[in-house]
Amino acid sequence: MGYFEQALLAAVLIGALSGLVGTLVVLRQRTFFAQALTHATFPGAVGAAILGVSIPLGAAIASLFIVGIMTMIGRINRQGNQVASGILLTAGFALGVLLQGLNPSLPVKVDSYLVGSILTVTSNDVTLVAVVLAFAVLVIVFLGKQIVFSTFDANGYRAAGYREWPIELLTLVLITATVVTAMPAVGAILAIALIAAPAAAARIVSRTTTQMFVIAPVLGAVSGLVGVLLSRSLDVAAGPAIALAAAGLFMLALVLQRLAGTVRAAHEADARRALRRSLRLKA
Amino acid sequence: MDVFTPLITAFDLPFMARALLVLVVLSLVAGLVGVLVNLRGLEFISDGLTHAVFPGVAIGFVWGGRDGLFVGAMAAALIAAVVLTVIVKRAVTSDAAIAVVFTAMFSVGIIVVSRETNYVGQLDALLFGRLLTVSPAEVNQTVIVCLIALIMVGFTLKEQVFRAFDREGTVAAGYRPLALDIVLNVAIALVVVAASSAVGNLLVLAVLIVPGAVARLVTNRLWLLFPVAAGFAIVAAWVGLALGYEASVNGGVDLPSGATVVLVLVAGYGMALVARLALDRIGGHHRTRRAVGQLAEPVVH
């Protein structure tokens, strides 16, 4: 497999994974959390590059710290989740830059952690994505009902005798794993587009959550594919191209929704007019 | 007094003094705007705005160098702030939509920069600033832009605070929340513009949200929040700059100055957090009773 085919495969798998887990992010309204997480993995990756260990491993360890601190700050009176996410997000960037500044001889360009470089992913990276994707699919297939139940009706979920924290923990693990595996491809800043856009688009076009869980990964995979192909034909960086492809699909879904809405409104107006006319004729 | 001399001597150098001046001005604005960001829970919106300004910065930079950067950023900031306010107001979109739209704009910025032939290092400067090489002209721009933001928010401060705590009350009293929101969002965007040459597009968020969060930890009195936030930001900027200078002159370690300042800010937040937790533990149940004049939780809309 050539490096370009490998990049395509990686983009498709990462897109599918991001779409699937992104559905959880969107439904549970954890976008800002996921965004903070993507940004904050940056120092982990830089640290890993300095120590010479695997990048996803470094990012994963950093994420563990971050989730822990964020949970702690989020519980403190007068601070809350948004403050926690925001502060860790910007601290993550600063720490990453600082680590980079302390090690000017770093062989890898740090920019690539910010905007990704999918053309340099290794077969190990691809395998990792495949494993995480398989795990995510299993979780959604077997525990999807519980997750959706706890997401939409936390009180009912508790009343039905379930406990919430295992679901919360599971979704946290999935989001973290996705962020960490997506980072080499689309980078710390742009990953959130690939996570949120397919799911948000799927939410617009689907009628049930089950449909969402199917449509979002497909849209994610399409974004990955289109992004990499566009990046080659237009000679632009792959990470931004993938992010823009995902955002484009979301915009398309919005436009389709509007069109469907106007068509439906026109139909209803027609129906009303027909009704009025028939009433008039009768009178 | 070996430890403290660098706090003074470092700023004999003109470029250090310029950096300090820029940061002090930014801190003053951050004290005002940042507290409002905190009270209104606009951290996520602010993050979106920083990303949205970036394509303006990038296009301006590619088109006209450092001066173009400023013009482009201004234009992008004004457009982004108004569009964002309208989007949020119409509530057609969710957090996810905001994240998607602004990350997409950020991508446009990255693509514009990456098409440039001499792009190595430029992206770094745009994202993380170049605090020590701001020119006198850039200092002037920063001061003017900050002043505009200060005036905008300063003149509507009472209404903004009213809006933060009681949206319905604001409407009933005859104010227009949409106008207030646009004023605040434009002010946030202006801070992003002002900071973009010095601390860069990604680190400006720290200037916007950390001082406000610290002030909330330190005091419960509303009108103390603003001076506490500004004071904290100034001290952190001062210490951060001196630390970076000391490390590179005497320690031989080249600390990136913008990142150092941000990390000092965050470290200060960490200390405030620990102190607050400790005080709450000692104070125990006294804290649960809220005295007159103390701050209730603002209602986030």
Could you provide a short overview of the structure?
The complex is a heterodimer of chains A (283) and B (301). Chain A has ten helices and no strands. Chain A is mainly α and 283 residues long.
Provide an overview of this structure.
The complex is a heterodimer of chains A (283) and B (301). Chain A is mainly α. Helices cover 86% and strands 0% of the residues of chain A. The model of chain A has no long low-confidence stretch (mean pLDDT 84). Chain B has 301 residues and is mostly helical. Chain B contains twelve helices and no strands. In chain B, 51% of the residues are buried. The model of chain B is unreliable at 287-293 (pLDDT under 50). Chains A and B meet through helix 2, helix 4, helix 5, helix 8 and helix 10 of A and helix 3, helix 4, helix 5, helix 10 and helix 12 of B.
Q: Detail the poorly predicted runs of chain A.
A: none
How far apart, in Å, are the first and last alpha carbons of chain A? 77 Å
Q: Helix/strand/pairing class of chain A, anyone?
A: mainly alpha
- Please indicate the percent range of residues of chain A in DSSP E strands (runs of 2 or more): under 5%
Q: Kindly provide the radius of gyration of chain B, computed on alpha-carbon positions and rounded to a whole number of angstroms.
A: 20 Å
Number of helical stretches of at least 4 residues of chain A? 10
Largest β sheet strand count, sense and barrel closure of chain A: none
Number of beta-strand segments of chain A: 0
Please describe the biggest sheet of chain B, giving its number of strands, its sense, and whether it closes into a barrel. Answer: none
Q: Helix content range of the residues of chain B, please?
A: over 70%
Report Rg of chain A.
22 Å
Percent of residues of chain B in beta strands? under 5%
Overall pLDDT level of chain A: 84
Give the distance, in angstroms, between the N- and C-terminal Cα atoms of chain B.
50 Å
Q: What is the chain-wise order of helices and strands of chain B? A: HHHHHHHHHHHH
**Which structural class is indicated by helix and strand composition of chain B?**
mainly alpha
CA-based shape of chain B: globular
